[in-house]
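Students often ask why we bother predicting the structure of a whole assembly rather than each chain alone. The short answer is interfaces. A chain on its own may look different once its partners are present, and contacts between molecules only exist in the joint model. In this exercise we take two input lines together and write out one structure for the complete complex. Read the inputs first and try to guess which parts will touch.
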Amino acid sequence: MTISDVPPIVTSRFGDPEAHTLERYRATGGYEALAKALSMGPDAVAAEIKEASLLGRGGAGFPAGVKWGFCPEGVWPRYLVVNGDESEPGTYKDRMLMERDPHQLIEGVLIACYAVGCGQAFLYVRGEMALAQERIAAALNEAYAAGLVGRNIMGSDFSLDVVLHWGAGAYIVGEETALIESLEGERGMPRLKPPFFPAAKGLYLQPTIVNNVETLSNVPWIVNNGAAAYTALGAESSRGTRMFAVSGHVRNPGVYEVEFGTTTFRDIIYAPVYGGGIAGDRELKAFIPGGASAPWFFPEHLDLPLEKVAVDKAGSMLGSGAIVVMDETTDVVRACLSLVRFFAHESCGKCTPCREGTTWLERILSRVIAGQGRATDLDLLMDVSDNISPGIAWPPRQTTICPLGPSAVSPIASALGRFRSEFEERIAAAEAARVTAVPVEIGAGAHG
Amino acid sequence: MARFSAENETLARSIIARYPRPKSALIPLLHLAQEQDGWVTDDAMAHIAELVGVTPAEVLGTCSFYEMFKREPVGRYLVNVCTNISCVLLGADDLLAHAEQRLGVTVGETTPDGAITLEGVECIAACTEAPCLQVNYRYRYRVTPDDFDSLVDDLTAGRLAEEIPDHGTLARVRQSPPADRLAGPVAPDDREVPVWMVPAGADDGGARGSGGPGGGS
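Now the answer. The structure tokens for the assembled complex follow.
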């Protein structure tokens, strides 16, 4: 195994229970990057982040520095929206960063706005995260009082308000255009792209950068240490470190910051310092490599590195850094239902294939589990899936505005593709029971 | 009580003032209404509509999209048991069944004394701590049926009143930036180039509204 002992970047203060205070943050180098950035000038800071090849940590993995450069020249004002709406099943990292090191995030926000020229920043925290909201509110209050946020930051001509905003329970709002709708006070439904790419037309139809919490939490370190130090870590197409949550049937479920692109799935699931292997030494059946939306991986994928290109090529994605491990005892039909039900529940209803399709996928799976499956149900599942995501391929094609609908197809295609017999067994049992059932006499009235 | 109290109306106005457009404050104001009354009443939505300058129907339109806003009374404590993948793998189904049995209600219902509403919810971002639940959005990790019983005992005996506020209250720390430190909201039609983006040496004429440097490239 190749466990690197790279020092943590974004979780470096997690050992300190008081790291969320301004006093402790400053005692450990906090806001030095902001001071340095202010002395470098905005263009140099933006160039440094671009040079670091910092990939977005929200799911799509797009380089943050490139995204920053997409704002059309000369169009003002620009806004920054921080996506702290973490809710992809299996994902647990942004909440930790917001609760344990809120100043690191705020410093990242300030540096990003300084580099891009954003006039105002909105920090959108998921509604269900009360402690994260408290920690960020307290951190902002301290930072305002210390002259680190607001008017003439650190005595410079850089001024910025950071507004903490809470969501109210809607997974879809993690999609960047839905996030913007929500921030405008609307129902959180995605916008059609194009033309509404946020960097060009985002919040209030002005250029808007939407960045994930973990992405921005990397920024202070990069400014402090330089892009070269960052690109010295990780693989060629996946620089720095990355947080992964390992959950499910492992001995040590946990959130681990590892060198990006060099650690393998086998390392993170089995190494004693990470997942520690499967409880009871049972066999691995399947694992989800990047959150509920990602197609599943199987034992033959264990030696793939946690690296964007390799995982994409193998037919899935690292997504939001969520690895869910399922051992041999897992009822895959039940596991599949819990994932599909999630997407059915969270579909915003804007696009028909998703609204109706995910609902039908859930109903069909539910009846298979309830012992009422029909012989035609498996083909029907694939047919409905094909209506949402034509061809059921990876990367998915979609008949919908956003990727939520196609995400519901991932668990279906994975579970049915690999474990079709488990579905068939349930249906065969249901069909057998149906044959022996006593027919119900239908009264004459029913036929008119 | 249903419209905002005088104190909350003042707070509502200060929240609205932080946004470039008043309607952006809708969700924060709905949270404030729920904090005041435990749920979102029609009168509160009408009041919010007045404050923000939209119709009550628009407020309802936004409110009804988001799961956390309750448009009828719920228990003092809302117990949300996670039923998504990582929790299901580690016993969430059994935990939820136990919860129903212990409370004598089915999912979605409130105990007859109005103390506890039970819900099964989607992923709440504590996947490594499965099975997990939240009480009024405060976490409990790796919950066993026995843990659940103790939790209910503690809640009903009032032993957690300090840690867990009544339903409707989320963060108990509010943003309170001092007025003299605020930079102020930036309106979407404020076309001025941010001063720090103006290249050193550029005169005012070149700096205002004429484009400026393309930041971030």
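Check your guess against this: Chain A is about 40% helix and 10% strand.
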